[in-house]
């Protein structure tokens, strides 16, 4: 099951997931978090809709409808607040992903350096195959490639040399974003973009300047899923 299929099922009815969907949730950190968000949204919406509306009083034929109207307006305002608040909440995982990416970069400062060293092409291809991806074109100026643990999943970690400085490229097969998003965290510039538009997985690019990000963008655009995935 693809993450996009899971999110469609969880978004439609998070309370009743079939065995296949539950199995995917059990092995995918990002989708498990998404399912939890959907459950909490369900609870918030239910709470907003359960605000009681007083029955109309026959003794006060004019005031009662006004009172009921105020309660309906309150319920509507709570519902709007829930929807708006949850929209901001959904943005939080993207910010958290950027922060986690930069934290990972900061944990390995010794490899984020300019160098003339280059990784053997077969070693690079092998590391990428483990994540189910490959580079489709061009000789890449990769000085380091290693497989790291990121949010509980194996992630190829590349250092790409550019004229503007070294760039970290993380292949995040288990982290999904809807579209390319830039970020600035702790002095670093970055970009997180889907491996393919609208598809599963993402590429995170982190550097000290926007110029380096743009130059390393060629690596991200050359990544695609292998036929085996």
Summarize the structure.
The protein is of the alpha+beta class and 229 residues long. Helices cover 46% and strands 22% of the residues.
Largest sheet: 6 strands, antiparallel
Number of strands: 8
Helix proportion range: 40-55%
Task: Estimate nothing, just give the exact number of structural domains.
Answer: 2
- Report the average pLDDT across residues: 78
What is the alpha-carbon Rg in Å? Answer: 24 Å
First and last CA, distance: 11 Å
Strand content: 15-25%
Q: Look at the structure and give the CATH class of the largest domain.
A: Alpha Beta
Q: CATH topology of the largest domain, what is it called?
A: Protein Transport Mog1p, Chain A
Provide the succession of SSEs: HHHHHEEEEEEEHE
Name the overall outline. elongated
Class from secondary-structure proportions:
alpha+beta
Strand order of the largest sheet: 2-3-4-7-6-5
The low-confidence parts are: none
If classified by CATH, what would the architecture of the largest domain be? 3-Layer(aba) Sandwich
Work out the helix count.
Answer: 6
């Amino acid at each position: 099951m693809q993450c996009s299929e899971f999110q469609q099922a969880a978004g439609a009815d998070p309370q009743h997931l079939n065995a296949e969907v539950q199995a995917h949730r059990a092995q995918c950190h990002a989708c498990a978090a998404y399912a939890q968000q959907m459950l909490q949204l369900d609870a918030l919406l239910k709470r907003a809709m359960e605000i009681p509306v007083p029955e109309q009083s026959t003794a006060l034929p004019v005031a009662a409808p006004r009172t009921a109207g105020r309660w309906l307006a309150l319920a509507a305002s709570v519902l709007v607040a829930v929807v708006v608040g949850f929209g901001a909440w959904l943005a939080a995982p993207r910010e958290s992903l950027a922060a986690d990416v930069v934290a990972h970069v900061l944990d390995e400062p010794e490899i984020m350096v300019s160098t003339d060293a280059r990784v053997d092409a077969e070693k690079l291809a092998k590391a990428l195959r483990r994540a189910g991806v490959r580079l489709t074109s061009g000789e890449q100026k990769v000085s380091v490639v290693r497989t790291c643990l990121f949010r509980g999943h194996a992630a190829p970690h590349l250092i790409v040399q550019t004229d503007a400085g070294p760039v970290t490229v993380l292949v995040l097969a288990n982290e999904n974003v809807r579209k390319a998003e830039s970020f600035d965290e702790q002095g670093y510039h970055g970009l997180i973009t889907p491996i393919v538009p609208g598809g599963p997985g993402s590429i995170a690019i982190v550097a000290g300047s926007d110029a380096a990000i743009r130059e390393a963008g060629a690596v991200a655009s050359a990544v695609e899923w292998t036929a085996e995935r």
